[in-house]
Amino acid sequence: MTAALTADRPAATTDALPISVRNITKTYGPVHALDDVSLEVRSGEFLTLLGPSGSGKTTLLMVLAGFTRPDCGSLRFGDREVIRTPPHLRDVGMTFQSYALFPHMTVAGNVGYPLRLRKRPKAEIAERVERALETVQLGGYGNRRIDQLSGGQRQRVAVARAIVFEPQILLMDEPLSALDKKLRDQMQIELRHLHEQLGMTTVYVTHDQREALTMSDRIAVVNHGRIMQLATPRDLYERPANRFVADFIGESTFLPVQRKGDRVYFGDTALRHDMAVPDARELLLMVRPERIVLSPDGARDGANNFSATATDVVYQGDTFLLHAELAGGHRIALRGATRGVELSAMPSVGDTVTLSVAPEDTVLIDGREA
Ligand code: ADP
Ligand code: MG
């Protein structure tokens, strides 16, 4: 989210509780579902847990909600230690990986459930349910049955139920994974607006990197129950800390490089870069395909220039993809816009081409994959 949007948030949201997770471990037999996880979620932040299936995302969300007790560690909401607090006293709204709606109840029955659990008066329940339904654009749907709703509408009901008691913290576990792509794109924008409007501290789970980049203030990349990197979408994409993160987010080419003194070399070429060299056993140069420039007139001043042979050229509508082989047999991929490029200027297979990478796009990473 941009700074401007953050500044526009209503004043009522400034007291949203921050979350502090310290050294939380949860094992199931030999499986470390969570392996010494520490993380801070800022007040009012939209933070996403992103990782492959089985990486521990749901387990961490269940620990935050209070449905799973970790083996050890501490959990604070604001100043309050809540690790022993039962779920209904945590002031947390949650949507589950399956919608977990009650099929035999009406929409209003489902949305009002958390309030009935909290023994709120009937009139208040009716009013809050209608307000929550309006927030998710389902005003007037209270009397419908769940099985009369589309997937997107059910998802909205699940969100309405999570926010109906105006919790300080909202947790969402892959809420859009069952929806088709078009609806998912639309709901991503809706959920972002909802967050801007309500301002509660939000932890969102997805395995979809693009969804995470679209929605989040910051993203924690999770693998094998550990946090591989926690950063803004832009920093994750442009400065991934290790190969796992670089591989999981976006496309990339990795080339082996060597450190000699205070320079880093690819083959005989000393690289120009503007980042600190990571202290890693195996060092890699990462380049994103769209950050490589095809230089028809040879080397570019100030850039890293690589001579290569085109092995494959694919026209893909908005972009073209070029595969090329560098000295030493290393392969590299380049993606360019077709707009403004005359087709005749695109290289042919077998052509020698010069590929240029600016110093700011020359990213050195730790070769660690897990
Ligand atoms: P994710 O949500 O990222 O797909 P989970 O948190 O559901 O991952 O699971 C993390 C790991 O913990 C997986 O290996 C999973 O099989 C294991 N796990 C999760 N819950 C249980 C459970 N109740 N019993 C046994 N193993 C579990
Ligand atoms: Mg899960």
TrEMBL record:
InterPro entries: AAA+_ATPase, ABC_SmlMolc_Importer, ABC_transporter-like_ATP-bd, ABC_transporter-like_CS, Mo/tungstate-bd_C_term_dom, P-loop_NTPase, PotA-like, Transp-assoc_OB_typ2
Superkingdom of origin: Bacteria
Domain ABC transporter, first and last residues per copy: 19-249
SUPFAM superfamilies for this protein: MOP-like, P-loop containing nucleoside triphosphate hydrolases
Enzyme type, top EC level: translocase
Gene Ontology terms for molecular function: ATP binding
EC id: 7.6.2.11
Keyword hit for Cell membrane: yes
Reaction(s) the record says it catalyses: ATP + H2O + polyamine-[polyamine-binding protein]Side 1 = ADP + phosphate + polyamineSide 2 + [polyamine-binding protein]Side 1
Keyword Glycosyltransferase attached: no
Annotated Gene3D superfamilies: 2.40.50.100, P-loop containing nucleotide triphosphate hydrolases
Classification via Pfam families: ABC_tran, TOBE_2
Keywords: ATP-binding, Cell membrane, Membrane, Nucleotide-binding, Translocase, Transport
PROSITE patterns: ABC_TRANSPORTER_1, ABC_TRANSPORTER_2
Family recorded in the similarity comment: Belongs to the ABC transporter superfamily. Spermidine/putrescine importer (TC 3.A.1.11.1) family.
Role played: Part of the ABC transporter complex PotABCD involved in spermidine/putrescine import. Responsible for energy coupling to the transport system.
Quaternary structure and interacting proteins, as annotated: The complex is composed of two ATP-binding proteins (PotA), two transmembrane proteins (PotB and PotC) and a solute-binding protein (PotD).
Name of protein: Spermidine/putrescine import ATP-binding protein PotA
